[in-house]
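Cross-check.
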Amino acid sequence: RVGDFGAMSCVSARACLHATSRGRGDASRGGKHRVSSRTPLSSRGLSGARKIGRSDGSTRVMAGWVDNTAEVTVTAPLPVVWELWQDKTRIPNWMPWIHSVEPVPGVPGDTKWQLRTNQFGQDFEFSWIARDLPPVKKEKIHWFSTDGLNNKGAVTFDQRPDGRTVIRMNISYEVPELLVPFGAALSPLVGSILQADLDRFQAFSSKVVAAMGAGGKNR
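Predicted model, tokenized:
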């Protein structure tokens, strides 16, 4: 399967977020993966959380933004690494929780992302439109979402003297209301997933380099 990346993850009124959770009922009954929603938001690691009043007198929580960073040093040279990240449809090869990345017809630089994952005993699905910002060739790609799940981020590349490449990924995302109850567990979880994704890219890029070498020998 050829697929690609991104970055992540209730969304502001202007955003069109699609989120489903088949296991939501189990969580509401107090499953073992659930963090009590009665815990103060300030204790759950969600910066900028706020409550919005409703006309019926009730309130709903709007969580703040969370940042996550991951880094890996890969054996593949910078030109190979850069080219692999240029085609966003490849990203699911090393980021399997990104189900698909597809170009938006007629809008160069815009891509539609679908994220599917099972966490905390539940299935979650989110989607968004990402818009690429002008890249810094062989140094940085970055983006922000224009619709759906609010997020932004960047991936930077640095070639070492020994020929290896350092990749750093930083993503920022507004926590969907659906995930607020999981509080402080969310950021470490996303961080570990991103680190595993970059480690997977190391293996993927090594195979590409090996294949390129084999192809050269067969010419």
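The longest strand covers residues 122-132. Residues 1-54, 57-62 have pLDDT under 50 and may be disordered. Passed to J.P. for a second look.
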